[in-house]
């Protein structure tokens, strides 16, 4: 096995290549990956015409090699990487010929032999390094891979990527420091290798890292590729000299067209032969990108002419002919498409995926205080404030408005503060997008796990809040009334969180989701029945919004809890502010308050059913948004 040194040498890796623990990583099936004639067009919204962003791109990479897709910003390298990884792109028309061992491969089989590492490290910060790999294995490996083999794969990857000392360390959250950026990037790569892919795609693997960390990441990837004969294709912006020299092949793009495509070691001499010698002590990657970049040139027309000359030179060059011959030489007889994928069980059972996601979410939720810890503390602070402001209200008519105000404030404010869940959900959603793109699971498993995980925490919040507020404020003091109150508050929180999930899925930008959720809660508070009684509400707001307002059912349910079956003393002169059958006794029957708002008793089941239906509607709409959106 590899030592724990930060930068293992290739000779060290080759020496360990026979270790049984690493045997599952070795690629014996895919010998080459080639592509011809890749052309990508998109609809230009400004000119309302089609715009070509990639034009006739050919390429080749074989086992054990690293290919760098390089070029200035806007050159098309990320688009090309997504095409090569066979990732769908909305609004894009693609013409392609992608061959594995000289053969076309069905998309399902290609997904099984390849993995994609995103530019951003979409990792759960409250998990440890080993737990991250464990859940990657649980979500991607079929049941035919036993527990012992799973553990062997995890430990092999921990060792291979030099993460032994960090195996039990948390990845890191905004309030708790974790592993370094370079270690996160290595972990992202390792988590994709758990399924033993043959082809590895990396989107800007050095983005956000300094030169030392960038070298460390690429060095580890090269080590793994050489040792286990993997094919690695990476888009990279402007690597350091030492990082650049670790790539075996270079595909240099500018304005969607190839400028050079061949061995990295030959690139300098190629440009020198065309009249562009590289100055001494210059980073070759920086030199080449500057050479083909037309965005910041003072004489842009001259620069474009120079670029077109280089593109034409490549098309007519001997190097391009040699590349075409190399692509043609990838014999279809090496491996048939059917033999590339081994094993009959191709995926994890959907139920097991949901259970695994729940397990991961529960670990995150109790370790990461941002998810629920801060909310519990916030709600308890609110409960203490409410309980002491509305302290020990006696059942007198002058306190009836105070009871109503407390009911409104408690339910509405608890609902409104569900916005605190937005950051935690957006983090979960980012991980879902990455894992869905890699074919691990879909929106159904994600939505089920997200919903179930939140239920116990929301119930705890509702119970703790109610214990403090209900008894301090002296609401209707019976056990059944208390637990009915807890039920309404729990359903209120579940509905509010479901609304957050829907809006954050629709608008996955924190500030936008926050604004949309705040507006929606403001709307629901306005038409719920407190500001204006439902029987006096404008017909438009009543029939369009009031009956689908979950806060309206919570409010009337809590009103029934307090006022049904309870009496209040009138003023000393027996002037009662609400009419009821007890007026002659100088008392107010709570039903008189309910009659003023148009609320009936005995409808708790109906209201709860409607509220559950609204929750289900939010969740179904959220599922639909996640299903339709892939980014």
Automatic annotation (TrEMBL):
Keywords: ATP-binding, Membrane, Nucleotide-binding, Transmembrane, Transmembrane helix, Transport. Its main location: membrane. SMART domains: AAA. The chain crosses the membrane at residues 369-391, 403-426, 447-473, 485-503, 510-533, 606-628. It is found in: Membrane. It is a multi-pass membrane protein. The keyword Lyase does not apply. GO terms for cellular component: membrane. Pfam families: ABC2_membrane (PF01061), ABC2_membrane_7 (PF19055), ABC_tran (PF00005). GO terms for molecular function: ABC-type transporter activity; ATP binding; ATP hydrolysis activity. Residues 33-280 form the ABC transporter domain. The keyword ATP-binding applies. PANTHER family: ABC TRANSPORTER G FAMILY MEMBER 11 (PTHR48042:SF11). Belongs to the ABC transporter superfamily. ABCG family. Eye pigment precursor importer (TC 3.A.1.204) subfamily. This is ABC transporter.
